[in-house]
Write a structure and sequence with these properties.
archaeoglobus fulgidus dsm 4304 fold, 7 strands
């Protein structure tokens, strides 16, 4: 049985960060088996071009005891351009040694290599990038993930968990 995870981080107005993690036994995230959050009271300030430096500490906190994972889904880009400039997903892949799929909701001008994917009845695409697997394979996996909406249910769930909008 596999272990497939999705993560997200929220930064409340009062400061700090809350990271959320869900784990499922299948890559479609049909049945989530684990939900976890971790809160940090202090985080680095946002720096353009170094978003990963702000995101990695909360992700370390929530992934620290997650155990072995077969795949990690992140909200954002893995690589920011076709030459491989690392985005959040590339840094996560390097640190945790797990294949990473980046699911971005907005187009990044330089990310011409991202695979555009429309899910459900959405007219706006998602932008799929990956490390540890071909982007086309990652897009096929995201296409099959649970949920009727543009964004897979696993990413919607970690967003809600990180914002405290869902009981754990």
């Amino acid at each position: 049985m596999g272990r497939y995870a999705a993560v997200d981080v929220h930064y409340p107005a009062i400061g700090g960060a809350t990271a959320a993690l869900v784990i499922a036994a299948d890559p479609t995230f049909t049945t989530v088996t684990t939900e976890r959050t971790a809160t940090l009271t202090e985080v680095a300030a946002y720096r353009p071009g170094a978003f990963y430096a702000r995101e990695l500490p909360p992700l370390r906190a929530v992934l620290g005891e997650a155990g072995r994972l077969d795949l990690l889904l992140v909200d954002g880009y893995v690589h920011l351009d076709p030459s491989g400039r690392p985005g959040l997903g590339a840094h996560v892949h390097a640190e945790f040694g797990v294949p990473v799929i980046g699911v971005a909701k907005t187009a990044f001008r330089a990310a011409t290599h991202a695979v555009e994917l429309r899910r459900g009845q959405a007219t706006r695409p998602l932008y799929i990038t990956a490390a540890g697997m071909p982007a086309e394979h990652a897009a096929a996996l995201v296409r099959e993930m649970a949920g009727p909406y543009r964004l897979p249910s696993a990413l919607r769930l970690v967003d809600a968990l990180s914002r405290g909008l869902r009981d754990r």
